[in-house]
Amino acid sequence: MPGTLDDDDLASVDAWWRAANYLTIGQIYLRDNPLLRRPLRATDVKPRLLGHWGTSTGLSFVYAHLSRLVRHTGQQTLYLAGPGHGGPALVAASWLEDTYGDCFPAVTRDEEGMRRLFRQFSSPGGIPSHASVTTPGSIHEGGELGYVLVHAFGAVMDNPDLLAVAVVGDGEAETAPLEGAWKGISFLNPARDGAVLPVLDLNGWKISGPTVLARKDPARVRSLLEGHGYHVLEVGGHDLPGMHHRFAAVLAEAHERIRAIQHRARSGQAPEGVPGWPVVVLRSPKGWTGPGVVDGVQVEGTWRAHQVPLSGVAQDPAHLRLLEEWMRSYRPGELFDEQGRPTALVRSNDPEGPLRISATPHANGGLLTRDLVLPPTAGYAVEVGQPGATRAESTRRLGEYLRDVYRANPTTFRLFCPDETNSNRLGAVFEASDRTWMEATAAGDVALSPSGRVVEVLSEHNCHGWLEGYTLTGRHGVFATYEAFAMVSASQTVQHGKWLEEAENLPWRAPVPSLNVLLTSTAWRNDHNGFSHQGPGLIQTALTQRAGVARVYLPPDANCLLEVADHCLRTRSRINLVVIDKQPQLQYLSTGAAREHVARGASCWPWAGTDDGSADPDVVLACAGDVVTMETVAAAELLRDRLPQLRTRVVNVVDLMRLHRPADHPHGLDEFSFRELFTDSVDVVFAFHGFPGAVHQLVHGRPRADRFHVRGFIEEGTTTTPFDMVVRNRVSRYHLVLDALENASRLPVGAQDLRRWCLAQLERHRAYVVEHLQDLPEVRDWTPAPRQTGAQVTG
């Protein structure tokens, strides 16, 4: 029985745990003499001692017992290590299970492989101290604390046979994301989802002080978790073999409870609320089994065990002796044979094949990924005849498209949104699915049910992290949020990007579905919310990612948005940032023209300017972003009407990375294509959705990059009218005309009159909005004048 350790299981689990601890210490300290075939010398020790011992022994203890449970039950299991710097424990586990050698053939499961394993840890050309992307079996690095539970919950959604065991460090438990993550069980349906088993590892200490939960009365900790809806199981101590017996029993009880919950739900017994999922509270000493006292100071069970308990081994012979005694205390002769391979006793604790925890395909989700069935975008398009003659809520069309993506992919696609699905005009998805909801319902609730698969929770951390766990285990989705609040989880975007960047260097990591982030309710149209909601900073964050990963799309209308969405949902291992507002906006391109425009990433709009292609224009008006595109088209019309002799070219950029050079980004326009759009020497007045510096960064290295004069968001905002926002940030049509007159290669007669008129219009606007509380009628109701358009886009 899984809950009862017989003598053979006890010997196997304990040997495996000792072997993992030995390998962990070796990774932190040694570069040679891995099996201690001779007494340790200072030259066997690394010149720099980096890594974290204190949390590793608890992680290995849980892993050892979890492997035994898997052997007895056949449970598909994903292990996530939340405590920071727990990497050596998980690397040791994968080496013992021989998955590390599968991924890195040079690190063989023998003495030479062990030596390589030790030398590479936290060393130049080696691996980091976290359970990073280089660690087989991992989807969670733990470098930035707080996300282990959200990744675990995302991994098991629509994944009914998977158990995600998430070890929550007690330091990690103090972070805001982790505090919010306990709510995941309110969205987990045992009839169709897998299960998450949190293990709260209360070893008592952070890097230099106690942890909050470890110092609370255990009854208060239990009440806290019970208040979230968990069934609490507790185990603690440091006595052996007693802790082995107690933890095996608790782990088996937790697993049996999970299986019972799932059996009832899958047998047709509808769950009534949150079913009381188990959580394990594990109390063990920090640095368990490590040095007890060093230089007269207690180490084991204190914060001093957090990193390197013996820091002077290269200089202090006494510390070197202590290190050798410590390592020999695990009796390595019982754990490794003459060739340095794990003995049969150690290996007997390992499950077989893909059931080995480090070999689970759920931690290499690209192996499980299946393409989405995507409906043709034309079925959701806005009918566009004359460019700009129609207004529509672009994201509403996207909602209709995503509704049918849900219908065609009932177990492999989800939308995650912080309570804003309807607000962002994506509410059509509720025609295909309710919101996921396991808590109580009340009269008047709309689209709430346990069977729902649209996920709404008022936490960007949860939504972002759930989508990460969902995609890293092979499924597809979208995280939609207000633009300004994307910065709440911006560091998660950065961390996920780093994971994808490093994964590209590992041939055994299969590409996973992309992280698709839709930003709407944007800076330019948060009229009633005001300055706090006006911030396009995530674009800047995305631009800091390596070129192979980040993509930023700024579709100007609904049909372009549909084409961008279709593209993004087909991509792999990317962060796709899509930015467009939800308010009614002008529609410019037909379906065919939109498809061509998105494929090119940037195009001339001949219908908007006066450039006939026979010669270079006098000025280029460029734009990227929906609101600033409207201002650019309006500015071009003013110039065309009032200075018809001035040759203007209008360029719209939908794929921001096209501005890069090909050497800097795979989407970068080649020199010929860039010249076709922007010429070699003509000045470019560029209206940009985000911070102006982003465009300057992107065009760096292009011919005469200083000719790009960028207008964008400059942190000027308040509760005001839509047009006043662009005026305040100096990106209005009148400002763009003034810039064009300032930078055109020639100025026809009448330029000074137009300049004075624009300045007068700005003054008129300022007075009008204060008096009438709305924009000037000619601005508020403006649409482009009809023209003979010919081609809608050109290269």
From TrEMBL:
Cofactor(s) needed for function: thiamine diphosphate
Domain Xylulose 5-phosphate/Fructose 6-phosphate phosphoketolase C-terminal: 582-783
Record Gene3D superfamilies: 3.40.50.920, 3.40.50.970
Keywords recorded for this protein, A-Z: Lyase, Thiamine pyrophosphate
PROSITE patterns per UniProt: PHOSPHOKETOLASE_1, PHOSPHOKETOLASE_2
Ribonucleoprotein found in the keyword field: no
Domain spans labelled Xylulose 5-phosphate/Fructose 6-phosphate phosphoketolase N-terminal: 5-367
InterPro entries listed in its UniProt record: THDP-binding, Transketo_C/PFOR_II, Xul5P/Fru6P_PKetolase, Xul5P/Fru6P_PKetolase_C, Xul5P/Fru6P_PKetolase_CS, Xul5P/Fru6P_PKetolase_N, Xul5P/Fru6P_PKetolase_ThDP_BS
Pfam families reported for this sequence: XFP, XFP_C, XFP_N
Domain of life: Bacteria
Record-stated family: Belongs to the XFP family.
The protein's name: Phosphoketolase
Native source species: Kineococcus halophytocola
Organismal lineage: Bacteria, Bacillati, Actinomycetota, Actinomycetes, Kineosporiales
